[in-house]
Amino acid sequence: MKTIGLIGGMSFESTAVYYDRLNTLARESLGGLASAELLLHSVNFADIAAMQQTGRWDEAGRHLAAIAARLQGAGADCILICTNTMHKVAADVREAISVPLIDIIDETALALKAGGAKRPLLIATRYTMEDGFYSRQMAGHGIDVMTAPKPERDRIHAIIFDELCKGVVRGESRTEMFEIIDAAKAQGADSIILGCTEICLLLDPEKLALPGYDSTRIHCEAAAKFAFDQIRAFTGDKKYA
Fold it and tell me: Which of 18, 51, 164, 179 is the Cys-Cys partner for 198 at CB 3.0 to 4.6 Å?
């Protein structure tokens, strides 16, 4: 089994989802008592959030790149940045390592294409929705990303940082999200990207007005494929007893 290196803590609420999902995938794939080989570096999110708020992306990139290099040095065979927003500095991380960086944006784009989606609504942090890096990378895959109007974007951002990142899940916020999705559907959206790794705590992608694509789940499944497929091939797809 290959070892998955996780850069987590952004926030720890979603990193816990990664830990649970990756181990569940290992058990489902390999059976018995199988679990995932993981290395986790969990950052202090307050530090990262301060860098985001003050535009210190270069500093954030250097910080995550150093963590990725340490994870590789500790034995990681691949690296995951367990947040969509910090893929804004993915190039810095990629340059610091020689093992694969499994990119959440690319993997989500592949899932959208496989599902025939072309015009998704992106639900994410303000940085991911507005800074351009996400939509440009999606455009490279032929995906035309839609975002909500600014008042709704501000509200989505607040729900993420003021609620979900603090472990608060409110039914009223879920209703607001449904209303945003309904409006986007009326404007031509054909799907929904849960483009923040905490959004899955609030929204079930299978219970939306449009097909939903949970970036957290997609990212974990890509990592599992990388880490577990070789051992499945070696055992002839037989599960552990």
Answer: 164
Catalytic residue among 15, 78, 82, 83: 83
Confidence band for 231, pLDDT divided at 50, 70 and 90: low
Beta bridge partner(s), residue 39 = 5
For residue 143, give Cα distances in angstroms to 10, 102, 104, 125: 26, 19, 15, 19
Is residue 132's pLDDT more than 50? yes
Structural tokens at position 101: 């960086």
| pTM value surpassing 0.90 | yes
Which amino acid, 51? Answer: M
User: CA torsion angle for 206, 126, 51, 47 (degrees, to 10)?
Assistant: -40
pLDDT digits (tens, 9 = 90+) for 151-177: 999 999 999 999 999 999 999 999 999
CB 60 within 8 Å of CB 93 = no
Beta bridge partners of 92: none
The question of whether 82 is a catalytic residue gets the answer no
Beta bridge partners of 214: 194
Please provide the average confidence, as pLDDT, over all residues in the chain.
95
Tell me, yes or no, if 54 is annotated catalytic: no
